[in-house]
From TrEMBL:
Name of the protein in its database record: DUF3077 domain-containing protein
Species of provenance: Pseudomonas helleri
Domain of life per record: Bacteria
Length: 116
């Protein structure tokens, strides 16, 4: 009787080293797929802040620190804008003006704080 499905080809038994190499290749493939196909970034919690301001900071100290930070941000934007031209320069300089406006409000609030 003739078989419909032929016998599989006779292959020599694989040695242990070849099996180990194949399993290492398979493991490397799975690691690569996991790395590129899955997002491995840890979830960021909303309640975690990058900077923690201690509760002991009073209003005057907080406003003074905010004023200094805004001054630095304005200076950085000004320097960055000087090296640009066109639309990019306009965007950076408009950010600088917004920072200066925010600094003016903080300074005005700082003037109104009564010192003890």
């Amino acid at each position: 009787m003739k078989k419909i499905v032929p016998d599989p080809p006779v292959s020599p038994p694989q040695d242990a080293a070849q099996c180990e190499a194949l399993s290492l290749d398979r493991a490397a493939t799975e690691r690569a797929l996991d790395y590129y196909l899955h997002d491995h970034k840890p979830p960021r919690h909303v309640d975690q802040a990058t900077y923690a301001i201690p509760d002991s900071v009073n209003l005057e100290a907080a406003l003074a620190q905010a004023s200094d930070l805004l001054r630095c941000a304005g200076a950085s934007a000004s320097e960055a804008g000087n090296g640009l031209s066109g639309h990019s320069r306009s965007l950076v300089l408009s950010c600088m003006h917004l920072v200066e406006l925010a600094k003016a409000y903080v300074d005005k609030s700082l003037d109104g704080v009564t010192t003890h």
